[in-house]
From TrEMBL:
Protein name: xanthine dehydrogenase
Cofactor note: Binds 1 Mo-molybdopterin (Mo-MPT) cofactor per subunit. Binds 2 [2Fe-2S] clusters.
NCBIfam families in the cross-refs: xanthine_xdhA
Binding site for substrate: 820, 898, 932, 1028
Domain FAD-binding PCMH-type residues, every copy: 253-439
Keywords noted in UniProt: 2Fe-2S, FAD, Flavoprotein, Iron, Iron-sulfur, Metal-binding, Molybdenum, NAD, Oxidoreductase, Peroxisome
InterPro entries hit by this protein: 2Fe-2S-bd, 2Fe-2S-bd_dom_sf, 2Fe-2S_ferredoxin-like_sf, 2Fe-2S_ferredoxin-type, 2Fe2S_fd_BS, Ald_Oxase/Xan_DH_a/b, Ald_Oxase/Xan_DH_a/b_sf, Ald_Oxase/xanthine_DH-like
Top class in the EC scheme: oxidoreductase
Residues bound to FAD: 281-288, 361, 384, 429, 447
Reactions it catalyzes: xanthine + NAD(+) + H2O = urate + NADH + H(+); hypoxanthine + NAD(+) + H2O = xanthine + NADH + H(+)
Main location: other
UniProt source species: Oiovelia cunucunumana
Amino acid sequence: MKDKPQQTDTLVFFVNGNKVQDNDVDPEWTLLFYLRNKLRLCGTKLGCAEGGCGACTVMVSKFDRDSKKILHYAVNACLAPVCSMHGLAVTTVEGIGNTKTSLHPVQERIAKSHGSQCGFCTPGIVMSMYALLRSLPGKPSMDDLEIAFQGNLCRCTGYRPILEGFKTFTEEWEQVHRLSNQNNGACAMGENCCKNKANQNGVNGCSKVNGNDDSDDKLVDTSSFKPFDPSQEPIFPPELQISSAFDDQYLIIKGPRVTWFRPVSLEELLNLKSKFNQAKIINGNTEVGVEVKFKNLLYPVLISPIQINELTSIKVQSDGISVGAAVTLSDMESALKQQISTEPKFKTKIFQEIVSMLHWFAGKQIRNVGAVGGNIMTGSPISDLNPIFMAAGCTLELRSKDGGSRTVPMDNNFWTGYRRNIVKPDEILVAIRIPYTINGQHFKAYKQAKRRDDDIAIVNAAFNLILNESKIEQLVISYGGMAPTTILAQKTADKLKGREWNSDMLNDTYAMLLDEIPLDPGAPGGMITFRRSLTLSMFFKFFLDVCQSVNINVPDSHKSGKDGFHTLPLKSSQYYTKVPNSQEKHDMVGRPKIHLSAFKQASGEAVYLDDIPRQEGELYLSLVISTRPHAKIVSIDATEALKVPGVETFISSKDIPDERNICGPIVHDEEIFAKDKVVCQGQLIGAIVAKDQATAQRANKLVKITYEDLKPLIITIEDAIKEKSFLEERILKNGDSESAMKTADHILEGEVRLGGQEHFYFETHACLAIPKKEDNELEIYTNTQHPSELQHLIAHALGVSANKIISKVKRIGGGFGGKESRSAVTALPASIAAHMLGRPVRVMLDRDEDMMISGQRHPFLGRYKIGFTSAGKVVACELSIYNNAGCSLDLSNAVLERSMFSFDNAVKIPNITIKGYVCKTNLPSNTAFRGFGGPQGMFISDTMFRHIAETLNKDYTEIIELNMYKEGDCTHFNQKLIHCTLERCWSECLRDSNFHQRRTAVEKFNLENRWKKRGIAVVPTKFGISFTTTFLNQAGALLLIYQDGSVLISHGGTEMGQGLHTKMIQVASRALGIPADYIHISETSTDKVPNTSASAASASSDLNGMAILNACNEINERLKPIKEANPKGQWKDWIKAAYFARISLAVSGFYKTPHISYNPKTNSGDAFNYFTFGTACSEVEIDCLTGDHQVIRTDIVMDLGESLNPAIDIGQIEGAFVQGQGLFTIEDPIFSPEGMLYSRGPGAYKIPGFTDIPAEFNVSLLKGAPNPRAVYSSKAVGEPPLFLASSIFFAIREAIKSARTESGDTEWFKFDSPATSASIRMACTDHITKMVPTPKEGTYKPWNITV
């Protein structure tokens, strides 16, 4: 009889080489919680809590006793239960290097390559790369990097610099440099090196400076990189390698609500399942973890099967392969790849499709821990693997204590309903058997999602076919995403048996599938016609694939239709002007210097708000929010919540006088806590304050709110128009559009809309409010872009003067405008609670809370009427612009105003009337977002001009050039354009991108390919720099010099990753004539610089730089006599002498932008200080059958004057462009008809990932264009590049136009943004889309609506 395993309740694991033993563990804790709260290792970040962003990535290591190897793999700490770490070793970002001793090469290279901006995602990316290096026997390939980063996201950088930095670890890099060394240092690209092509952009990560190639001025100096020596990595804990004691232990850990079991035998597992029928079997916790966190579910018994041999084994059998249910997806993939490499190709077709599908299945971190059995038993109707398993005829081995073992097929009878199956409560899934294929068998699987990498499917399919000569002998058709379960189209398959595999069969199949697989017009997931068309498109792809494999004739132009997209090799170049050789070495202005916090961010040492240690007596606040869009509050009952041990209080409107329960950035039209009624879902009603986050959030769910719904319910822009629900209306007129319209040869009317966009900054809204012991003083730490505004709002809410409130910001993990005004949603409740209770209060929103509460980019609708000549010259335009503001004004009127100012973009429209409407709806208040209405206005304009070009059958570039602004022209708001470089940016971009030659190549490609189409488009931009509210264009700075010569600067701007502090130190370095390392900026605080404007409008460098320059000039004046008395002295000598001479070494600098004073009543005066110009050209390829797309190349030319820091500015261009790419393509917020936000995290809301960026990404800063209107001739950069990403959208439109033309549809077609896979596919009208009926509006209730 086998010895009974040792039982233990003590968790033992290693963290960064240190042994952790803990017998006081709660099974509900994740590894992330444990690291951050018990071990205080805060480098690992919480970004989403659902394994979708990678910010929490750590490396887990274990000793595999079968292979005798140490295995290293990346894991999402936000999902991994800490109990699952028993006997394992965890390495966090702190464990591989730091700035105090030595950085690891991974940390150093991402920093030196400018791959860290806000830095919140950086530790996770570092650890994904580190885990990759540790997991491979040799150097990684670029393919390995692609896979490693599938589970990591970044919102700031645009990914390019990260990939370029980490490429230096790869075999491809080594090969290039070995060849370079053989060529005596010459570039391995030979004559194709970018430096040999003065008029063309370089490739493969080359950067070129206009001047000498000094290593100090290189964008990235790879020669300075520390070598990577794998032999120097920390060793695996010998205790875990020598002994299997921890592996053999039966672990039982009991918590207050949940018990964790880790049995070590199948018998023990079956006993547990017999005793606890409802127990959850936990592998990677990738499903249960999300349910517990976001659905408030509780599973009292959790069982880990990772030590059960029968569930973790992979067995090769005569007819296939048996995979244990607890085998991870990564291990299954490795085993299948081994089979593919050793068995004949015809035997492993199913294996090949599983491996191919796993590439698109979640991220690497999820695949490393998620198990195949979990994927089956979860029963998601959009599972990537279940359609394959069903089509393949896989069988499942089930076992129970009393019922023994049985084998069941995965067929239509397996599922009994949504996420339900025939497995009995006491049964467990032991293994799945995946069969070999036979000669002549055809097997393919397909998937379409919003984003290729790490995304859930919209529809997926698998097809299994055996042909007898050309007749169908056997056919299995499986779909996911078309019903509550994965389904088999059995009726269609049965009818097709014996049919010839030909076009007649194909056409009949379409009709059969549409008949067999109906989809209710209101079905969850929406996109009904798209999903139905995908079922046909995927079968058509399979048809094309089979035809080509058995040599059935297919037109050459159709052949590429069977293929999907795969990641293209990364190429890039960056051009900028080198500083002159005469510039002093200590003068940092114009040099590509690394972000000053980059090394700290890469090592996890940078402190973000929630990294601040807990204060004595600290409490945690959880916001209670509305679940109705428009309703009267009948009652609020917190009785049950207040009974929860550890709950301190519940605060609501009753705790604040009515006159103080109001807030808002422009007008106070919002209640801090809703009193009598709610006007949107997500509105604050109250807050629970408790001893910790878990207690507060648990009690939050017990607050009972009774509502009485109110009418009307206004959700969409169209609703607001119908109800005349406008917060503000504006009109801007120039010339006489009505009269001019009568002179036009042609008049067009049209409309277009641009959807909203979630900010998705990685650090969610957070606040720590610390009350002082006297005088009602309060110190607040927030991650706001506007600390002064918060200071005043909090003072008002508390009924104290502003001088009692100190508002501080150290750094922000991304902002993009979303933290300009909406930080009040956390700061005000936390401050009120801290003030009431006299104790520190902390709050940090979960990702879903943040997305539901804090608002987004404004959706816009534009309706235009434009008159023009037959040559394409515009003579008049009348436009109505609507934005969806949500339930309050916030900054929506300023956003609308900016869109009206920006509508002209790059073209002169002589007679114009713009009417603007701020629509009040029952949505959370929308707010500032990078571009601030500018991109929306420009998008309407660019759509309009393309409409003109198509109407006249002319080239769009010809129309733009005919109407483009020139030096000295006046805008429609009567501002004269001075130093206008639009034409230069335009012409250089056309030249550098080889636009005309490539467009010819695109046309040739489209003639040769029916189901793949390419498009190429070029887009200019003109972006005004300044706050359009005049008084905001001011800034202050405090400059303090200490006796040792060190300088401390405080200014009004906040650092959110844009490199503001770095640039400000560069400015001060030049102004004071001292090295940058003499200067320090600690934080932004209202007790140092008062009355600051928000870090917004791209104006922070301009305003704060000039304020700092003013302070430096004042100090220089004071030091002038000292320097004259000792001209050969050094800085430190002068400062010491000044101190002894009693000269003040503290200066307050100030700046206000001159000559801006726009008067909207007269439409006169300059609205902006100057304009930033640029142009982008992008080429794309689309899959007409699925709507998928790939960006092949982008070229950008940007006028940034004389850049203060080319590295930071190029990073801002690329980051803004990729954020704009998301806006115009895949980012699509999803709302219910009642205004509920469905897309509340990275699982449902997709931002661009590593492989979505342009495969070739070239950025050039315009040479010789100094700007006399800003600090040291520079220009603002944060927002202007974002609109250039519309070049991708319009290139997609061009590709669609080619597809439609081939189908005989040549008319102008309405195409709204974003260009999602659904909108692309349905715009590519063809025989398939025309078969799918469109549900008639008004006959059903849709699952989601466009707001």
